[in-house]
Amino acid sequence: MNYLAHLHLGGQLPSQLLGSLYGDFVKGRLQGQFDPQTEAAIQLHRHIDVFTDRHPLVDISLSRFSLTRRRYAGIVLDVFFDHCLARDWQLYADRPLDSFTAEVYRVLAAEPQLPGRLADIAPHMAAHDWLGSYRDFAVLEQVLRGISRRLSRPEELAAAMQELERLYEPLSEDFRLFYPELQVFAARHI
Fold first, then answer.
1. Lowest-pLDDT range, 65-69, 165-169, 174-178?
2. Is 51 exposed, middle or buried (0-12, 13-18, 19+ CB in 10 A)?
3. Which end of the chain is more exposed for a tag (fewer CB within 10 A), N or C?
4. Are 7 and 17 in contact (CB under 8 A)?
5. What is the rounded CA–CA span in Å between residue 141 and residue 187?
6. Phi/psi of residue 66, each to 5°?
7. Could you read off the pLDDT of 114-155 as tens digits, one per residue?
8. Residue 55 backbone class (left: φ over 0; alpha: ψ -120 to 50; beta: rest)
9. DSSP letters of 85-124?
10. What CA–CA distance (Å, rounded) separates 68 from 26?
11. pLDDT digits 0-9 by tens, 87-104
């Protein structure tokens, strides 16, 4: 799961929203450097990642990708699943996506000490509505291009969009089956 799904699943309190994002930016053991709710949300983020990585439906989704892309298929799938969530937000959430993302951006702007790289990207995330923009399938190409700049072998993501176009319907169906199970899992851990 990528940013939007973690934010959606991690709880709606400001400290939970922060921890849901911090999970991608804070590594190692948590030793009281954040408040307990934030640390609990970071732990939930990590549990969601493990649950997702071990889920049979996700294995099926990953097996749909060509062998040349298999190494980074998990990254591509995370981004695509955020697209599915944004596209079908009203099926999984009780408030509009624009309202939710605006709240996330307010919480980020109000936090003076964002960890690591999150401090650098949070203003761009809000200014360009990264979370809401996932609704638009074409945006995924920009997202994947940005991710590829941080990889040692970026060429393996080069044709990921064509593959996603080909796999759009089966991966969308995989998401429809998987996400409700992930929601139940996350709700049990909050």
1. 65-69
2. middle
3. C
4. yes
5. 31
6. -65, 155
7. 998 999 999 999 999 999 999 999 999 988 888 887 776 767
8. beta
9. HHHTHHHH-SS-HHHHHHHHHHHHHH-S---HHHHHHHHH
10. 30
11. 999 999 999 999 999 999
Distance CA 1, CA 52 (A): 7
- Confidence check: pLDDT of 113 > 70: yes
* CA quadruple 14, 16, 20, 26: dihedral sign: positive
Q: How many CB atoms are closer than 10 A to CB 26?
A: 19
Q: Structure tokens of 10?
A: 């991690």
| For residue 169, pLDDT beyond 90 | yes
Total length of the chain: 190
Report the alpha-carbon distance of residue 157 to residue 29 in Å, rounded: 31
The reported pLDDT for the residue numbered 154 is: 67
Share of the chain above pLDDT 90, in %: 77
Residue closest to 33 by CA, chosen among 42, 24, 46: 42
d(CA 135, CA 113): 29
| Residues 183 and 85 sit within 8 Å (Cβ to Cβ) | no
Which amino acid, 125? M
For residue 83, the one-letter residue type is H
Nearest to 77 by CA among 162, 151, 172: 172
DSSP summary character for residue 34: S
